[in-house]
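Morning!

This is the sequence you dropped in the shared folder:
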Amino acid sequence: MSDRFIEDLRVQLRGAAEREERQAGVHRAASALRHELAPRVAAVAAVALAALAVVAADLALRGGRTGPAVPGPRVVADVALTSGGGSMAAGFGAAWVTDPGRERLLRLDAGGPGRPRVTARVPVTGLPVVTAGEGAVWVLDLAAGRLLRVDPDRGAVTARTRLGVGARVAVDLMPGRDAVWVVTPGELLRVDARRAVVDRRRSLLHDGFEATGIADGGAQLYVLHADGVLSRLDARTGAPAGTVRTARPGFLLAAAGPTALVAAQGGVDAVDARTGRTRWRRDLGAQRINAAVVARDAVWLHVTGRGGPDRLVRLDPTSGRRTGALALPRLGAAGLAAVGDHIWVLTPSGRLLVVD
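The structure's back. Tokens below.
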């Protein structure tokens, strides 16, 4: 071998060794970097997965639709109001609450998120039920079997109407068109709003079955009977407007236009009042649904479950999709009403919960 060849070989071997050393250094640095970054990468991945889970849960809650999230309800006031229980209605820029133990009707300021303020106290007797509409506040005196008309501005009783039914037989009030309807299990009484006299009576029986609930559907009243038949009545005259049979019997909670909301088997059925077809069905795991109100494109339900606290559940009236829920700090609902931008819950113990 020539000296030239040997020297070239040495140079090539030395270059190869240097390259190998550089590559080994790169591998060592990469390994150290991976070791150092592994916890950080895992943390970033965990955050990303958590964010994806939140997005997925939000999409599931909104039925897969994108758009701004619907804020959840919250209790903004919890105050003692009545001596126990009562009835509640909203109208004429105020809330109207009966206090049976003290035999009085309370008018409360409906504005603002703070503590509701009592602005008038109207003496009433018996165990009253209240509704508002057709120019007045109407109080059902169950003990005396009469209807009181109250001027909403003066807070004074302006008429007393004998109903001709036994004490405590009438169970509810429903504003009509130029009238107020007094509801009993078997009969509907029309009281002319201007003259404050009973001018019409309609049977609520269907094949001998009494009514299990009545709701205001606008131009029509909806009556659900114990046999599962839903009747429609003209809201002005009480004349029959048709009947349909529902898929399963239950208790009529409320109405959203042409849709009747029926409590059945632990949930709610939305029934087309014209055809009897079930539009949607939502299982709430409820032992009992105590009350319902439709307000601001939402259905609000006061629910007692099979364990845990009572809940206020908010549903989309079109699809039945749940858009919010709130565990309540008090049990029971003697009254439920939409007052301004809030939902008011009156408990059997006389506490008022104001929900935003």
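Headline: The first helix runs from residue 3 to 61.

More detail when I'm at my desk.
O.
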